[in-house]
Amino acid sequence: MERPSFSQRRRPAILTAIAVAFLGAPTGVIAQAPKDVKTPDKPLVLKAQGSFFVGGDKVEQTAGELGDLGAGGHITINQMYVHYMVPQRGDRNVPVVMVHGATLTGKSWETTPDGRMGWDEYFVRKGHPVYVPDQVGRGRSGFNQAVVNDVRAGSKPATELPVWLRFSDEGVWPNFRLGATAGQPFADSQFPVAAVDELSKQSVPDMFRGTTSISTIKALSELATQLNGAVVMGHSQSGVFPLQAALLNPKAMKGLVLVEPGSCPATYTAEEIKALATVPLLVAFGDHRDNPTGLPSLPTWQARFEMCQALIGRIKSAGGQADMLAPPDLGIRGNSHMIMQDKNNLQIADLILKWIDADARKRSGAAK
Known about the structure:
CATH superfamily: Alpha/Beta hydrolase fold, catalytic domain
Oligomer: single chain
Helix content: 25-40%
Order of helices and strands: HEEEEEHEHEHEEHEHEHEHEHEH
Distance between the termini: 35 Å
Largest sheet: 8 strands, mixed
Number of domains: 1
CATH class: Alpha Beta
Strand order of the largest sheet: 1-4-6-5-11-12-13-14
CATH architecture: 3-Layer(aba) Sandwich
Strand content: 15-25%
Shape: globular
């Protein structure tokens, strides 16, 4: 008999309806003050917290490539910055690595735009060590400036420049499914639209180059190996990264969580599906997936949802454990693409944590 889906198993979940005030078109940026950040009643008790880098390549660059800041020499590129928190007795639970999406940084998982607790802290409070990277080429991981300086100096053509991506505030509304159009949230929207300007501040220039994604995926696999196994969670553009990192070293993965992935490739070979079937997989999608994204060159979110359903089917057919978490199937309505920042973000986090404890924690294979 086929095992019920994760959503079906969690169907008794209760939805608390939340009224959302109408937000008009933005006319200015509202500053967020320390008083706007909500401090939990219970203290956060850590065994350790800090940061480090994973990976990196030593290269030699000319004075011009370095921006004429002294003579030429060697620098490191393609390194991945990681911030971590380990709770007391954190060695009892599997570590969780949280990777952000396009034009964003690890801030996605931290304090929400309206000042509530983010998933990084919440997962730690639930006993899991949490590791939050900035993708290679963004945030504190930095980027390789050489090509920009080479074009500026005329030694390379302008066609060599990378594309720098940013979402406009208006474009975020339909694509991230905050509302059908800018300033008009869905009636049941879970996103804190009154604080949407804070989401705008989180956006950073994204140097779109395949090499940075490859370096990030390699670093994620290395990180999971160094942790002796981890659940790797990706979001949006990085939603596919846990799958790609698992193919580099399946034994280092204790679970894969794809949060609103930008794609679930149909191109995996039978051998790759067999490898992925050795790792528990959870895919999570929010609501209003059929809303037009405003990006006609890309698949709709409903189409991506269906791609992921197909991948889940292939992995199950290969004997793997793969589940879809669709809150609407549980009666939980209004979740956006930024589900980790929605007003019911901790309710969704609890569903993922239950899956980790019930499925990913059972995986006995440790990194070698």
